Amino acid sequence: MPSSWPVERYGVHLQNQSGTPVDQAVEAIRLLGFAVVEGNFCLEELTKISSAFDQMLAATRQSHGGYEELAKIDEQNTIRAPLVSEPIFLDLALHPTVLAICRRLLGAYVLLNQQNGIINPPNAERYNQGAYHRDLPYQHFVSSHPLMVNALFCLDPFTAQNGATYVLPASHKSEAFPSDAVINACQQQIGAAKGSFIIMDSMLFHRGGVNSTDRARRAVNQTYSIPFIRQQIDLPAALGPSYTSDPEVRKLLGYDVSTPRSVAAYYADRHTKLSTKTTKRR
Ligand SMILES: O=C(O)CCC(=O)C(=O)O
Questions:
Q1: Structure confidence by residue, pLDDT tens digits, 63-73
Q2: Which of 111, 151, 183, 276 lies at 20 to 30 Å from 220 by C-alpha?
Q3: Does the beta carbon of 219 lie inside 6 Å of ligand 1?
Q4: 77-110 burial by CB neighbour count: b if 16+ within 10 A, else e?
Q5: Which CATH class is domain 21-233?
Q6: pTM for the model
Q7: Domain residues of the chain, as ranges?
């Protein structure tokens, strides 16, 4: 159906106003649970990310026992925390539009909860993201405020043929997984251009589609959460204490929310926090 501008309506005297792409994404995510936003990468940047991804996949398989060994734990199609070995993926995690949307939805304190390279394998092979799930799995409640947001970076174009992601629109607002009949009637496949992000409320039910082409469909799934939710991999431990001195990047990566390992460490943290507060007030 062609869209009209302004949209025709009657009996309406209250309407949301969303002027910018960030406003529009935030509004759509609140309403439906997902939005697609442009990454605005140039071809050269996409080529760099693409070859870093392929190198990381080869390195992951090589250093963790090979494809067959990883397949035993269903990890052959995932690159865990690529930013730990390759700084180009830190840049991806720091994408300004993604962070702006996350901060609008989650609040000022945003934690990078996970970053995973995802391979949807060719020739209709099944893979670990091909079944419906929430990215906060096993959770069956509705929160009045988003807890976690996904930014699924499309390293290849997402199409019906290569297994673009399916979503159940607005399912982030339902406790239960919908019935199979309703799923089959309401699921929506999201086509997206190479270099764009599919941004979702992490409570939205979604899955990868079937890739019936002869080429892998690649993506990087990044999730951003409120700081109470623990990271999938302890990034400060994996990166080491002096990875970066930028306070905003340290905060995003979780350096400021590690769990004290003893009562003495808890008191030491309190001293640091309170003295920083006092210094700031002066
Ligand atoms: O590969 C996809 O299309 C979906 C990825 C996904 O579901 C996930 O990483 O949680």
A1: 999 999 999 99
A2: 183
A3: yes
A4: bbbbbbbbebeebbebbbbebbbbbbbbbbeeeb
A5: mainly beta
A6: 0.94
A7: 21-233
